[in-house]
Design brief:
heterodimer; A: 10 helices; B: flat
């Protein structure tokens, strides 16, 4: 369920930081006369902007994954069933739980990069949010992806779980097959 | 182009385009 993935990503600490940045951009960019006309206050902009990005971001993920799903159904990954069944292993579950902040950060970066790029190309007068676009180091440091990846490598390196080893092996193959298709 | 049309929603928040 992409809507839930996106909502969870926005509820994460990095999601909240990006939302605050979006709020800053909206407050700096909104036309004051228009705000008066619409009886909108500056503090209404952030939650409403967040809802807009969540709605459009969910639509974007639905569209992108529909494309990927169509391609993988044409070229199914041979060990898909085994990969799926390994997800019930306790070690794999723990690994996937540890991985969640990284998955969420990737979703958030993807959404805001596309949002910023569209706004730039379409001349929407809204400052960019994505820390990569703006060079916002403080915000970039809040991205948990690198730290999570290190923790995962350490966890996988120390683990003696055969299920986890096989899961990682198949995940890599599935990823390569998906990229190829 | 996943965000094509978002400017209409942003205009509701007084964000101008063009």
């Amino acid at each position: 369920d992409k809507a839930m993935l996106v909502r969870e990503a926005f509820a994460s600490p990095y999601g909240k930081a990006l939302t605050a940045e979006l709020g800053k951009s909206l407050r700096a960019s909104a036309d004051p006369a228009c705000l008066t006309d619409k009886a909108l206050t500056a503090d209404q902009l952030e939650p409403r902007g967040r809802d807009i990005v969540i709605t459009w971001g969910t639509r974007m993920l639905d569209g992108a994954f529909a494309l990927i799903d169509r391609q993988t159904s044409d070229n199914p990954f041979a060990s898909a069933a085994e990969l799926e069944s390994l997800k019930s292993s306790a070690d794999v579950k723990r690994y996937l739980a540890m991985e969640a902040p990284m998955r969420q950060a990737k979703i958030l970066d993807l959404i805001f990069e596309h949002f910023d790029r569209y706004n730039l190309i379409s001349r929407v007068r809204l400052g960019a949010v994505s820390p990569l676009a703006t060079g916002n180091e403080a915000l970039l440091r809040l991205n948990p992806a690198d730290a999570t990846e290190e923790k995962l490598e350490e966890f996988a390196g120390k683990s003696r779980s055969k299920a986890l080893k096989r899961f990682l092996q198949l995940s890599e193959q599935a990823g390569a097959a998906q990229a190829a298709s | 182009t996943f965000f094509k049309g978002v400017e209409t929603d942003l205009a509701e928040l007084c964000i101008r385009s063009g």
